[in-house]
Every structure is written in structure tokens, then in C-alpha cells.
Amino acid sequence: MALGNRRRLRVAISGASGMIGQALAAFLTAGGHEVLRLVRRATRETDEVAWDPAAGTIDSAALEGIDAAVHLSGKSLASWPWTEATKRAIWDSRIDSTRTLAGALARLREPPRVLVSASAIGYYGDRGDEELVESAEAGTGFLADLCQAWETAARPAADAGIRVVNPRIGPVIT
């Protein structure tokens, strides 16, 4: 896929080691775009940016001038059984990482135009056979509460004028 007359984009991706993140990074790279992968370990490659969402730290300088950020990181929902400790880890991994990234983007001198921050269809809760549309109100229960808090955690980016998109993704099965 050639860029043609289009400008090469710089896109930062959290969760780039996950199934969606790997596919997105490969797609963007094949399209001639530059991908920066946020990693929670010491960086080993020039396309990696260090961050520690639990501690609220990120190498913000490496994000200056990016065109977009795609936030996909979070503890797998397949972590069974869902004990209170597991639910807390699922919650914290999403909220802490979103706050860290959204806050860092909001403070950049040259912020990106968009933050695509994942959410989930769990936002709507279990509504049985009710037909749901994107504008439906949030449901109730752990996943609905999580998704609402997750989307709200991106607010610092929106408050800084960055367009925030929350795709409500369904289960991803390998």
C-alpha cells in the first residue's frame, strides 16, 4: 500500500503486543506510516516508548509531534476466574493507563489530532434481546461501570482539544 500524495503519519499505539495492536501496527507500517509502540519494559528498539501506567509515567518527549494515539492496552478479560482481585486488576489496567496516556497527550506542546481509546460493548450491559444503538444509555454491572470509567478517563485529552474516539469493541477471539 503506497502513500501516494498522502503524508506519512506518526501513530503511537499502546497494547501493540496484543492481537488488535499487532495487526494495526503491521497495517500502518505496511502503509508507510511510522508506528511508536508503548512498552512497559525497558525499550529495546527505536520505535518503542517507555511507560508505566500503574506508576503514571510515560516518556512524553517521545510523543511530541505524533499525529494520532491508539490506546488498546489493558489486562485480558479472559483472566478467569473473575475474583475481586482480578476485577480490580482489569479495572486498574484500563483506568490507570488511559489517565496516564490522556494526561500526557494533553500536556504536549504539539498534541495529536486524535486519541482512539478503546472501550467495549460491555458499556451497554446485559440487556437481553433489546436492540441497542451506539447512542443507547450505559447499562449496569461491572463491565458497564468499567467502560464508563474507562471512557471518562480519556477526558483530559478531550479537554485539551484532542478529538477522542471510543470504539466499543466486542470480544476478540483468536
Set out the fold topology:
Blueprint: E1 10-14, H1 19-30, E2 34-39, E3 48-52, E4 57-58, E5 68-71, H2 84-107, E6 114-117, E7 119-120, H3 142-152, H4 155-159, E8 163-165, E9 168-169
Helix pairs in contact: 2-3
Largest sheet: 7 strands, mixed
Number of domains: 1
Q: Helix segment count?
A: 4
Task: Determine the CATH superfamily.
Answer: NAD(P)-binding Rossmann-like Domain
Please give the CATH class. Alpha Beta
CATH architecture: 3-Layer(aba) Sandwich
Helical content class: 25-40%
State the secondary-structure class.
alpha/beta
Distance linking N and C termini: 26 Å
- Overall residue-averaged pLDDT value: 96
How many beta-strand elements?
Answer: 9
Q: How would you describe this structure to a colleague?
A:
The chain is α/β, with parallel strands linked by helices and 174 residues long. The protein has one domain (10-169): 3-Layer(aba) Sandwich (Rossmann fold). It has helices spanning 19-30, 84-107, 142-152, 155-159; strands at residues 10-14, 34-39, 48-52, 57-58, 68-71, 114-117, 119-120, 163-165, 168-169. The strands form two sheets. Strands 4-3-2-1-5-6-8 form a seven-stranded mixed sheet. It has a two-stranded parallel ribbon with strand order 7-9. The longest helix is centred in the middle third of the chain and has 24 residues, at 84-107. It starts with 9 loop residues before the first strand and ends in a 5-residue tail after the last strand. The model has no long low-confidence stretch (mean pLDDT 96).
